[in-house]
Amino acid sequence: MKAKMLCVTALILGLLFISVHHLGYPLGYDLFTGVGIPPLITAGNTTYHLSTIIGSLLLIIGVYGTARLFEARYPKIMSRLIIGCIAYILVFPWVSGQIVSLVKYNTSGISSVAYSTKDSECRFQTIESRLVADCMLNIYNYGNEHQITIRPVDIGFGREHVTLEPKEITVEPHRRSLVPVRFQSVNLVDVEGSGMKKHPAVEIGLHDHWKVYRYPG
Q1: What's the pLDDT tens digit per position in 5-25?
Q2: Chain centroid to CA 204
Q3: The pLDDT of residue 160
């Protein structure tokens, strides 16, 4: 009985750690951060998701161990476990989005909105010695807010650090929206050029509260 519980627990934890939720990154990242464990390990120029590595190992152990323990009674359990895990991983982003939207439906404040780096990008160029960034930002408004203040952060242009002016944008309640926004740098830049930033980090402000959203890794 103890072996069965351990295998099933490993299977469940593995699925939780590696499942990517609606914001576009593994749930394990939030779980590790919530208990104070660094979810990322950097070695040289490569960043590893600790939660994904551990989750994958737990999932393999859980599937294999559970199948071995129950295969005498259920000969096809291995194939069904694999199919079930794949189906769970595929539907989890949609399910997680629906659950969060339901829980936060009547909320307001900074916790009622979120930003996803998935599908977000900024194309930037210098115009009259200022950096101009035309961004498409993926905003989730779970609750009742109508306006937020937002700006991309940590945009490196050449060797300079450029600060972009925050913009107030309109967001529709209870919806996910890809919002086009143009930002302009606060400071002048000496280098001319253009480029694109995938998965830009942003800072969102609402009612004097601010939160930074970054792509995990």
Answers
A1: 888 899 999 999 999 999 988
A2: 15
A3: 59
